[in-house]
Design a protein that fits this description.
The chain is an alpha+beta fold and 408 residues long. Among the domains are: 3-143, no CATH class; 271-408, de novo design (two linked rop proteins) (Up-down Bundle). It has nine helices and nine strands. The protein has a nine-stranded mixed sheet with strand order 1-8-7-6-4-3-2-5-9. Helix 5 (243-268) runs antiparallel to helix 7 (314-333). The relative contact order is 0.10.
Amino acid sequence: MAWRIEEQVVSGEIDNTVRGRVTGQIWLVGQLEPLILDLEGNPWRDLAGTRLRFSNPKPVAGISGSLGGLQQGLVGDITASRKVRVPDISMEELLERYERHESFPWHWGNSLYLEWFSTSHGRVMIESADYTLKIDPERTWEMSEEEESEQRRANGEVMAGFMDRAVSSWELSEKSLEEEEVRPSWEIEADQEAARMDLLMDRIEARMKREGLSSVNWDRIWKEERERLRRERGEPEPEDLTPEQEAERSAWIGEANAAAQEALAEMEAEGWKGEQISERKHPVAGLTHDLALRIYQDIEKAGWLNESDQQEHPLREVVDGVRIAATKLAGALNRFSDEEEVWPPDEIHAGGVLVRLKKARECLKDTLAGLEGCEEQDLATPAWRSSILSGVKKILQKVERLIVELRR
């Protein structure tokens, strides 16, 4: 999950005049003090060695004060040269044409894309073709094409490594199970592939939303964005594979398709509110689904949340954290409720399973942060918070055990 704040930005500036460092300030609607950026890394070649100022002509309120202060961490992809299709009609007319499955007039425009990984808030993104941009004409240093290719490849590895470090910084009130310090090569490869998949999914989702596309366009957009990502990262065109590589590729395609289905389910489905995730549920996935359903029903019945409450409301963090964890755990574990599937999985499939388990762990720790916010703001009731906290910790311990088992 990422913070997407392009609508709430009023103005800002980023500075890469010092090689290896991106600093800057970003002002958000309703906040007196700006976000202060202090990040390791460089942007793409178009912004390397220079200073960019930007402003949003139509900022919209929406981000709470929980995102603020000093943003330290690592640079993701930062560029002002990404080409996107910009509609030549209003959003209202665009939505009307979308409902009628009609085309719309558009032109190519440059989109500002800012991404960073904060030690305090995780992944933060800004993407818009509507901002007014001003780049200083003079550069303090130049980035070569080779350096840009290397920077883009490094960015692709940032997400997996950074999120692992961020998650490990959380401390549970009870001691977590010990994890092995050295990750096996198959786990590193799986994390890198998952980071790439997350980036690809974010791009597909943003493009479909921006261009008013429906799910029937999914396969085409998938292929186009996958190829664009390959070119941006300077990766070679695919070569003919050996039979062994074909088998491994088929396994990865299966994992990718499963990830795509999870992403679509998280974007569109409300089925988690029902009685079943699937006919056969792994005990840990079933326990998490039942807790997610209970949390949703308790909050709905008590009326603790209003439609106007923002996504960063602590109770929404509690609801979404367990709900998405249930989705990830179902994707990782439900196949092993079938007698034909043996735990742990073979080496080819182990990476995809471990990635989902670790993402579920992230979501459960997001839930703990939400519960901490509920405690600070005295939301819900003390008895309810205590009960949910106990349930989340119980599931988190089970997930930790599964991760250790799979690594061993």
